[in-house]
Amino acid sequence: MAKEGRAVRQEIAAEYEEWYSEQQDWYEHDENTDDEEWSSIDETRSCVVSEKAAATESRASALDKISDRLRRIGVDFDSSLLNPAILNRPLGSFEVLQISFLKSFGEKFCNELRRVMGTIHLKPAPISAEVQNRFLDTGLGGTLRAAYHGTARQSLQSIYNRGLLIPGQGNKLRVKNGQAHGLGIYTARLDAASLSWGFCTAPNAWQKTMLVCGVRDDAAANATYGMGNHRVTRESEDVRHVGSAMVIFDHRRVAPLFEVSQKVRLVSLPTVTFNFDRHSKLLQRLAQNTLPDKIRFRPRVHRRKGCCGSQMSNTIEAFLARRGARKRRLKGL
């Protein structure tokens, strides 16, 4: 929480410096500037502000439409982290990308995840500014695609802070689930959510979380060839399509955009009341640490086994009589 607080304060300070510099650019003018030139500057500034307000309003309305569509298909979507009215600031480039991504792929991956996970809760992934800037690098190129990534719940915070990383490349991560198709970041393509769902782990089954990622895919179609039990259909130096998976060999080309978890419905337990009036006498006796005489423990009288108990005789005549009676009963059967 302390790290997040420092990151938020740094982001606010950077935004304030940018805003202050913009204000200085608008209002600084020398003594030779006449009124006409100043009025033209003021008009230009008002146009820019109105354009920004219109863009913010259009993004808010687009987010509302997306939220309504997702609610209609039964998805609990937390849109507060992408709403400029709630954030009280214009959206950043990465947040605009998240809205555009949700508009293009949201209904498709939500319908698929509902079939795999049941009722789901969707929210934007709170990744760090470093990971955001790394993914927004325009020099990467490629087509934006949606993909799934399943991991352990305890690894989510590290992923949000540092991004998805390739084990052993500038870090101390180890390969956990093999590298049959190369050392890289393994994701599942759309229509293969069950592949990533199998790698989601958590202390409790209802705590498992899936990451919906954006991938800057520059793989080109080429002659297919076999790799293990699957076939490679598209490939480049940084991305490989093999079977239902995408393996990314450049960690800058993939970033988690949304977090999907199972929505747990709390079951209301019946209320149990204790009738003090009915058990008042028992409570009084327990409070006085006394018990009535009729329920005190008494020594148990030892009885011999048999139908007659302790009254059974042990003489020879009695034994012969019992044996004769038993034979007569058997003859009657």
Radius of gyration: 37 Å
* CATH class category label of the domain at 46-262: Alpha Beta
Spatial shape: elongated
Kindly report the CATH topology of the domain at 46-262: Phosphoenolpyruvate Carboxykinase, domain 3
Q: What is the CATH architecture term of the domain at 46-262?
A: Alpha-Beta Complex
* Strand percent estimate: 15-25%
Number of strands: 10
Report the order of strands and helices. HHEHHEHEHEHEEEEEEHH
> Main sheet?
10 strands, mixed
Q: Strand order within the widest sheet?
A: 1-2-10-5-3-4-9-8-7-6
Distance between the termini: 86 Å
Specify the number of helices.
Answer: 9
Structural class of the helices, strands and pairings? alpha+beta
Low-confidence spans: pLDDT under 50, at least 5 residues?
Answer: 26-32
- Average predicted local confidence, pLDDT: 80
Helix content: 40-55%
Write the layout of secondary structure elements.
Blueprint: H1 2-27, H2 35-72, E1 76-77, H3 84-87, H4 93-117, E2 120-124, H5 129-135, E3 143-150, H6 156-162, E4 185-189, H7 193-197, E5 209-217, E6 220-227, E7 230-235, E8 239-242, E9 245-248, E10 254-262, H8 280-288, H9 316-332
Parallel strand pairs: 1-2
Antiparallel strand pairs: 2-10, 3-4, 3-5, 4-9, 5-10, 6-7, 7-8, 8-9
Helix pairs in contact: 2-4
